[in-house]
Write a structure and sequence with these properties.
The protein has 259 residues and is of the alpha+beta class. It has one domain: Alpha-Beta Complex (Spore Coat Polysaccharide Biosynthesis Protein SpsA, Chain A), CATH 3.90.550. The protein is 33% helix and 20% strand. It is built from 8 helices and 12 strands. The protein has a 4-stranded mixed sheet with strand order 3-7-4-9. A two-stranded parallel sheet has the order 1-2. Strand 5 and strand 6 form a beta hairpin.
């Protein structure tokens, strides 16, 4: 596990459960760490040594080891598969009530429409933003990692572009339950995903951007009889493929060859 600067008891709880925990600054120490989910995933690949890597979000309420074995199955039995995404139902909490579906709001309102418009080959992925997926190290080493929440859509599109659809798979893990983010956080996540999509379209020569999109997200909340505005910088930052990082590829580097 790579800790992304948490300030609660995450590290202690993880170690007590038997996990090997590294701080993000402990992996590829010559590269200044950045905040963000994708940053930790990128460093997590560098910190591991297996031929396949499994990612699982840490805030699941109903996690079981079946998640890991299910994701590994296609990679271990089908040599042509390079990336496996999980699919599942997404319950939605509303107070004390848990609805059976509706939890994947950013998926349905942002990611799925964009994928259907620009990469219809990927429209069959039920949960394209799934945080549970597995891939071969040889593939992950070649991919660019957006440092924020756009990492999943970026990896999916790039893996498809590199290997083709036949190398991608999905497995049904039935249900995934976790805490649901509020609308403000979902808005920032959506902004990151849109920026990654625009970047991939430009990189494929399908979109010409005269200048980078504005990275300031303005949101509003009710404050008495008026509204209060807040601005958040949602800047697209990306890590290059690990195969191009000297600190990773150097013979003296042991982070990805240690247990």
């Amino acid at each position: 596990m790579v800790d992304s600067g948490s300030t609660d008891d995450t590290v202690e709880v993880a170690r007590a459960a038997g996990a090997r925990v590294l701080g993000r600054q402990d992996v590829l120490g010559d590269v200044e760490p950045l905040p963000g989910k994708g940053e930790v995933l990128w460093r997590g690949v560098a910190a591991t040594h297996g031929d396949v890597v499994v990612f699982v979000d840490s805030d699941l309420d109903d996690f079981s080891s079946d998640f890991v074995t299910g994701l590994l199955g296609p990679l271990l039995t089908q040599p042509e598969v390079g990336l496996v995404k999980a699919t599942y139902d997404r319950p939605l909490r509303q107070g004390e009530t848990v609805l059976p579906a509706g939890g994947g709001r950013v998926t349905e309102l942002v990611a799925r429409p964009l994928l259907n418009m620009f990469w219809p080959e990927l429209a069959g992925f039920v949960q394209p933003l799934s945080g549970e997926y597995a891939a071969r190290r040889s593939l992950l080493e070649q991919l660019t990692f957006p440092t924020g929440y756009g990492v999943e859509v970026g990896l999916l599109v790039d893996a498809w572009a590199l290997l083709g659809l036949d190398a991608l798979a999905q497995v049904d893990l039935v249900r995934r339950k976790h805490r649901n983010a509020d609308d403000a956080k979902l808005g920032a996540m959506a902004s990151e995903i849109i920026q990654v999509v625009l970047d991939r379209l430009a990189g494929q020569g399908r979109l010409r951007l005269g200048e980078p999109p504005d990275d300031t997200l303005v949101q509003f909340r009710r404050a008495g009889e008026d509204y209060e505005a807040s601005s958040t910088k949602v800047t697209l930052v990306q890590r290059p493929p690990l195969a191009t990082i000297p600190a990773y590829t150097a013979p003296s580097h042991t982070a990805h060859s240690s247990s």
